[in-house]
Every structure is written in C-alpha cells, then in structure tokens.
C-alpha cells in the first residue's frame, strides 16, 4: 500500500499547469471512450458491412462477439500497458494507448467490407476491436495515475474526479456526432457509407489529443522514483506475485471496484435497457431522458470527488453501494409505473403460468448472443420475458410439451429441435396466440398493419379469423400495383410464388391491425418528470461510487507498481463484473419470470463489496503517494 498518512497542508487553488494536466488527460480519455462507444452505437451498420455473407441472426451474433471482444481484453491491456507505465513512464505509455486507439478507430472507417475482401474483413475488424480494448485497458490507469501524481495533497479526489466524467462525456460525444451526421446525410446515405464518417473524424480528435499530450511533462512522482533509481524491474511480479501487494489488489477488486462497476452499469446502461426493452418506452424518448439525467448528474462526479478530499473516499463509496442495494427495487418499480402504467397495471393483474417438464427449463445466460434455447419451456419463457410478462413455472409430466396459461387461454409451445423445418411456422403461431391472449388480458400491445399480395390474400384471411375480413370486400378496396420482382425483393413473395403468378405486377392490400404485435408504452401516459428524476437518482449513485474511486485506487499502491496494480482490478471489475450485468440480469429475470428479479445481480455484488469494503478496505485520502 502507498506510504502512510502525512500531515495535511491547507488546500491551494489549481495552477495553470495542473489545469493543463487535467484537460490533456481528460480530453484523451474522452476521445478513447468516444472511439469505444462508436462501435456499439453503429453495430447494425458494421454487421451489415463486415458480416454480410451471413444471415441476419448470425450476422448480429458475430457483431456482438466483436463488440464483446473489446471488453474481454481490457484486463490484458491493463497488464501490458500497466507494466510499461511502471517501467518507462506514465506520459509515454498513454501516448501509445491513444495512438493505438485512434489508429484502430480510423482503420475501421476505411476498412473494405466483406463483399470486397471476403473473410479478411471480419477478421481484421475483430483484431482492430481487440486493439481498442487493449488500449482502453491501459488508458484509464495511466490517466488517473498521471493526474493524481500531479495533484497536491488534499486535492487528489477533486483532480481525478474530472477523469471520472470522461466515459459519460465520450458517450455524449459519440451520440451527438452520429445524430448530426445522420441528420446531414439522410438515412440512405448514412446506411450506405455515412456511418464511416464518425470513425474517420476520430483522426482529428486524435491529432489534437496527441499534440496536447506531447506538451506535458512526466509526473513528479515517477520522475522522483526514476532519479532515485527505485523503479521496479518486474512490476507485474511485484504487484501480483507478492502477497503484501496482491492482497491490496484483491481488496481493491472485491472491496471497491466490483460493486462500483455494477452500480455504474445499472445506473446508466441497464436503466436505459430497462426503459427501452422492458418498459417499451420509445427509444428516442428513452435516450433523451437518460441524456438529461446524465447532464444533471455528471457534475456530481466532481462534487463527490471534492467531498472525498474532506471526509474520505470510503464513506462515499460505501454509502453509494448501500443506497443502491436498498433502493433499486422501489426505484425500478416506480420507473415501471411512470414509464408504462398500463404494463404495470397488467402485471399486477395477470400472471402467466408455464407448465413444463422441469428438465426443459434452462437458465438462459447468453452474454454473447450465441446460445440457442430450443426446448418448449425455454421458447415459451423467453417469449414471455421479451414481452415483460411475469410468470411462474409449474412442473409438468416428464417429456411433456410446455403450455402457457394466460387468463382463460391455454397455449401449447413447441420444441424447435423436434419441429425441425416447421419451427419457424410454429413460432409464428405461438407468438400470435400469446400476443392475442396478452392483448385480451389488458397488456398494452398494438398490432401494426401488414401488406398482403393478392395471391396470398385468401390464405391470410383464413389464418387470421379474429380479423373478420371478407376477401371480396378487401379486393374491392384500395390497393397498390407493385412489380412482382419488387415483391420478391421485399420478401412478400418467394421466387417460386412470383413465377407461379406469371404476371409482371400484382395488387397489394394494406390490412390495418393485421401485422405483428408490439408491446408499447403510450407516449401520452409516459411521465417524463418522474422518469428523469428516478434516472437522475440512479446517476447520482453512480457518481458516489465512481467519483472518488480513481483517487482511492492510486493511493492504495506505491509508485513503483501503481500503474499495473490499480489498472487490473479496475478493468476486471468494470469489464467483467459490470459488462456481464445486462446478460446476467436478463437470464435471472427469464428464469424467475419477474422483470425485477435481475436486479439481484447488482444488489448482491454491491452487497458483497460493501461487506468486504467495510471490513478490509482502509481509508486512503491521507496517504503519501510519492513513495
């Protein structure tokens, strides 16, 4: 651990050189987060360009795998660049990380798609994505260490808290640039090539960031250590191979960072996921609400960093963890009533019952999106979870096909393996029956319109008796003549059906309320004020646990191994404990049939961190970090 407490000098104002240090470190880190988030924001376009040879589902899986690769390699980046930072210096190491991140991002913007260079395109893309993750794994520790080692004693929490705002600001920057370019170019041009522009613009940000960082000096603590000849010759072995240091890395991970990570992800990413995917609030509206909450809450990173210089890092972090543990359930339930009151009312009134062979009901943990759940129980529960429907599972006879009871409706599921080629048709029937039962029970589902070619009209009417349509009446109404070739392209007809029709054009009818069902939140009933207030509270929890933690991690370790020792627990905690939150929470909710059950994941991890932190984590604000 860093050297013991020192006498506290009166805090002084920030010097111009210190402002420059904070600005340079923060700007570079904002840029790296901007690069990192671009991939996630533009994943749909990246998948279509670099995985175009695969069907859409497989394409999406590979796109998510490439995205996940960036998270998974972050701890390895912490090891590689942490070691380099402890050997050759903070400044030059995070110059290297920003160059790697910037070059990798720019190359994504110019990389030819799979239609041009085949399988080489996705391979190169994944390599670039891994380089981005490695660079980010080295950037944060370098920036936090560099700023802290420039900060005067008694001001490290305040100075490093500016670094803590950078992930949020990077997300803002990426979204603003994407929205601006989309507006300027239009949807068609953006889809064709415009999505590359945000990646190419990173070269400008890279140039500015590198130029500013080149003007900076090495940190005083590292220069002193270098002059005294006390640098570690093997920082990784010393940090993690010697128990006197490794124990502090473990305490940092399990007594601070793991809990911080799940609160961070729950308060920002999972809250947005919950609004959009569980409550079915309009995506743009949800993004705006979260953006407003982040704009209000971001200042509190600095507030709590400043406060941690006064009362300590540990009390603020522990208080944030405790508040999250105690209030997550009531806050997310309040979010449901504010965001989709019709859904909340239906959930209180109607609960589905799934009767199935227990052996067919699996825990649907799927962090990469590659797992396939094919049993009749899994198919039924996944569909109910997707529609935010609470349910309970009742044990049925061994080998039986699962059934779903909603109100007075009893619906049989299917086994995808046994159904083989008929699985798609059976899935369509199952979804329709469940959706009709949910709609009739009061769930806020709406049914869209559908375009039906004349040759399929009679079959469509027969398959949808609930619409009470008459073929002659529909044919006598409005229609549009569409070339059969276009109908094939739009997947309204197969090539065989078009050939059988033997006509250049065909009438197409638009049937209102005859298309797919969709769970929605009525915009007129969405309570913006309440939702923004709840989201702001969640963001403030994030700032409590995240604002002081950079200073604490820096202060836990001696200068000779600081870069390595603080970076690894940080990136394991945030890359793995935090990164797995959405997939784990969804799987837990699916297993239990309760949209709130997944909240136990961040609550339990935060609780473990709280207990370990209260017992083993020592206060660090008065530590001397120059030793």
Automatic annotation (TrEMBL):
Keywords in alphabetical order: Cell membrane, Membrane, Transmembrane, Transmembrane helix, Transport
Membrane topology: Multi-pass membrane protein
Annotated ranges, domain Major facilitator superfamily (MFS) profile: 21-621
Annotated TM spans: 61-80, 117-137, 158-181, 193-214, 248-266, 286-307, 319-339, 528-554, 575-593, 599-617
Short name of any one Pfam family annotated for the protein: Sugar_tr
UniProt GO molecular function: transmembrane transporter activity
Signal peptide: none
The keyword Lipoprotein belongs to this UniProt entry's keyword annotation: no
Superkingdom of origin organism: Bacteria
Cellular component, GO, one term: plasma membrane
Predominant place of localization: membrane
Places the protein is found: Cell membrane
Keyword Cytoplasm: no
Record's protein name: MFS transporter
């Amino acid at each position: 651990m860093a050297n013991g407490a020192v006498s506290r000098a009166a805090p002084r104002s920030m010097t111009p050189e210190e402002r420059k240090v904070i600005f340079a470190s923060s700007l570079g880190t904002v840029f790296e987060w901007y690069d990192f988030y671009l991939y996630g924001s533009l994943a749909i376009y990246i998948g279509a360009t670099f995985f175009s040879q695969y069907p859409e589902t497989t394409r999406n899986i590979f796109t998510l795998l490439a995205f996940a690769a960036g998270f998974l390699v972050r701890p390895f980046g912490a090891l590689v660049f942490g070691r380099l930072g402890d050997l050759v210096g903070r400044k030059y190491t995070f110059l290297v990380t920003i160059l790697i991140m910037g070059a990798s991002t720019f190359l994504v913007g110019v990389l030819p798609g799979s239609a041009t260079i085949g399988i080489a395109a996705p391979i190169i893309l994944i390599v670039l994505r891994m380089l981005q993750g490695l660079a980010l794994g080295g950037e944060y520790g370098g920036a936090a260490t560099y700023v802290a080692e420039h900060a005067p004693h008694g001001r490290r929490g305040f100075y490093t808290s500016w670094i803590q705002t950078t992930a949020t600001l990077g997300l803002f920057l990426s979204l603003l640039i994407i929205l601006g370019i989309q507006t300027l170019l239009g949807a068609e041009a953006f889809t064709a090539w415009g999505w590359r522009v945000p990646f190419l613009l990173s070269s400008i940000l890279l140039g500015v960031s590198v130029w500013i960082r080149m003007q900076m000096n090495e940190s005083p603590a590292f220069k002193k250590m270098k002059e005294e000849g006390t640098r570690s010759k093997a920082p990784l072995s010393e940090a993690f191979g010697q128990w006197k240091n490794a124990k502090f890395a473990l305490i940092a991970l399990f007594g601070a960072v793991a809990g911080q990570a799940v609160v961070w992800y729950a308060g920002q990413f999972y809250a947005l996921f919950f609004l959009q995917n569980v409550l079915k609030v309009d995506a743009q509206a949800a993004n705006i609400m979260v953006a407003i909450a982040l704009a209000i809450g971001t200042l509190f990173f600095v507030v709590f960093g400043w406060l941690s210089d006064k009362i300590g890092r540990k009390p603020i972090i522990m208080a944030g963890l405790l508040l999250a543990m105690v209030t997550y359930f009531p806050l997310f339930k309040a979010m449901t009533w504010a965001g989709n009151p019709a859904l909340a009312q239906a959930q209180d009134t109607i609960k589905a019952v799934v009767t199935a062979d227990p052996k067919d009901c699996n825990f649907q943990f799927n962090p990469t999106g590659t797992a396939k759940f094919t049993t009749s129980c899994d198919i039924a529960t996944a569909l109910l979870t997707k529609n935010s429907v609470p349910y309970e599972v009742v044990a049925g006879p061994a080998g039986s096909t699962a059934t779903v009871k909603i109100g007075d409706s009893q619906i049989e599921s299917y086994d995808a393996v046994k159904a083989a080629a008929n699985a798609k048709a059976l899935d369509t029937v199952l979804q329709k029956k469940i959706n009709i039962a949910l709609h009739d029970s009061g769930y806020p589902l709406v049914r869209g319109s559908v375009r039906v070619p004349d040759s399929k009209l009679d079959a469509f009417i027969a398959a949808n008796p609930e619409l009470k349509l008459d073929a002659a009446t529909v044919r006598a109404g409005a229609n549009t003549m569409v070339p059969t070739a276009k109908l094939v392209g739009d997947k309204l007809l197969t090539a065989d059906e078009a050939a059988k029709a033997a006509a250049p054009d065909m009438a197409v009818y638009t049937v209102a309320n005859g298309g797919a069902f969709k769970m929605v939140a009525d915009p007129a009933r969405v309570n913006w004020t309440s939702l923004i207030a709840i989201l702001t509270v969640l963001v403030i929890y994030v700032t409590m646990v995240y604002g002081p933690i950079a200073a604490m991690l820096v202060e836990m370790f001696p200068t000779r191994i600081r870069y390595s020792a603080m970076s690894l627990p940080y990136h394991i905690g945030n890359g793995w404990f935090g990164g797995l939150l959405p997939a784990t929470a969804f799987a837990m909710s699916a297993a239990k049939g309760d949209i709130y059950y997944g909240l136990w994941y961040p609550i339990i991890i935060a609780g473990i961190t709280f207990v370990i932190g209260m017992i083993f984590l020592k206060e660090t604000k008065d530590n001397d970090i120059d030793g």
